[in-house]
Design goal:
Elements: H1 14-23, H2 38-52, H3 61-74, H4 86-105, H5 111-117, H6 122-138, H7 149-156, H8 167-177, H9 188-203, H10 208-216, H11 223-240, H12 265-268, H13 326-331, H14 350-369
């Protein structure tokens, strides 16, 4: 089966699906990552990946996949000491995750153009290959991650109004969620199901309960985990004002359009988080309360069908301002990289004796070389 990271499941053979369900945990960050100290390092990596993924033909799947690599690597491995400072090594690791994702997604990728367009300094360029190798080892060479994209079409086919939701809408919900570390705790299959239910809740509210029952009929999805993810996903769509689109070519359910500033009375009675803004043909309004990196949206060609979903939307991942010099102290503290211990040769311990012997050996070698 040919690999297409944007639509990797063209057919749903039961054997193939079982394989993906069984392997999806291997493509997740380690348990507890969302509340670990590495969450601070992720903020730096997120910033770096966003800034260096800008290009004319922007493809949102590339930074999405890059963050998957970074999360899996940093949640299970100690940050390699390559450039000395933790912050510099995090930047280098994030750049390498991005270049690896670009190579997987686009065979025409050339690093020489990447480093030229992003003005990489010489230290980063010299150590790119060595850091890439350490990341590959750290994620067990699994570049073809089983992401939520693998399960998207499976769940679309299980609900009556699935084909009435534009694939671009589902893609955007899934990819925008990658900016929030809290979503790393959910399995990719749950994230895919949650994106569909969230879109259904907003575009086909009268069909929501049936859609939820149909998805829960899948033996791999647990109700409690799905409900938790749907709640977060729904709130994210509200906060980021993600544009949701229906496929108007299909007459599924009652016709319903929500313009900017309007709400649906059928939904407000149950949940206060309902005034999501839909702006057909326009990008969402930028929020003032969060720092968002501007990435211009690439215009889709007129003949581009929904079977080839666009991935050129603006990413609304939150950025982290590191203007505060105290941030450097936090990042480069012993919390992330313990200092090299200094042994006292007179304390009599085995470690001290080993350190003393090592020092004596180095001194002897220096004497010989002199």
């Amino acid at each position: 089966m040919d690999f297409d990271s944007g639509n990797p499941l063209p057919s749903f053979e039961q054997q193939a699906l079982e394989k993906f369900f069984n392997e999806e945990r291997e493509s997740m960050a380690a348990e507890g990552y969302a509340v670990s100290k590495e969450a601070t390092l992720r903020k730096v990596a997120l910033n770096v990946i966003l800034k260096n993924s800008k290009c004319f033909n922007f493809d949102a799947f590339i930074p999405y996949l890059a963050m998957n690599y970074f999360d899996r690597f940093i949640s299970r491995n100690q940050l390699p000491n390559v450039l000395g400072r933790v912050r510099d090594d995090i930047v280098l690791a994030a750049i390498c995750c991005l270049t690896l994702a670009w190579k997987v997604r686009n065979q025409a990728f050339r690093f020489i153009y990447f480093e030229r367009d992003n003005n990489l300094n010489e230290d980063y360029k010299r150590h790119i290959l060595s850091m890439e190798l350490q990341i590959l080892k750290g994620i067990n060479w699994r570049l073809r991650a089983v992401t939520a994209m693998y399960f998207k079409e499976l769940f679309v086919g299980k609900i009556p109004v699935g084909k009435g939701i534009m694939r671009r809408t589902l893609n955007e919900i899934i990819i925008q969620a990658q900016g929030d570390i809290n979503f790393t705790q959910y399995k990719p299959s749950v994230m895919a199901a949650s994106s569909l239910l969230t879109a259904c809740r907003l575009l086909y509210p009268n069909e929501y309960n049936q859609c939820e029952r149909d998805i829960l009929a899948t033996k791999h999805i647990k109700e409690e985990e799905l409900e938790s993810c749907v709640k977060r996903t729904y709130e994210m769509c509200m906060n980021k004002q993600i544009l949701l689109e229906r496929n108007e070519k299909l007459k599924l359910g009652p016709q319903r359009k929500v313009e900017a500033g309007e709400t649906s009375s059928s939904m407000l009675s149950k949940d206060p988080l309902q005034d999501i803004l839909h702006r057909p043909g326009k990008g969402p309004i930028q929020e003032i309360s969060e720092i968002v990196l501007e990435i211009p949206e690439t215009r889709m060609e007129p003949d581009e069908s929904d079977n080839e979903p666009g991935l050129s939307f603006e990413l609304k991942w939150r950025l982290w301002s590191s203007d505060n010099p105290e941030d450097d102290i936090i990042i480069d503290s012993p919390l992330f990289r313990p200092p090299v211990p200094i042994f006292d040769p007179n304390d009599g311990t085995d470690q001290a004796q080993a350190g003393h012997n090592s020092t004596s050996f180095v001194q002897c070698i220096n004497c010989i070389l002199m």
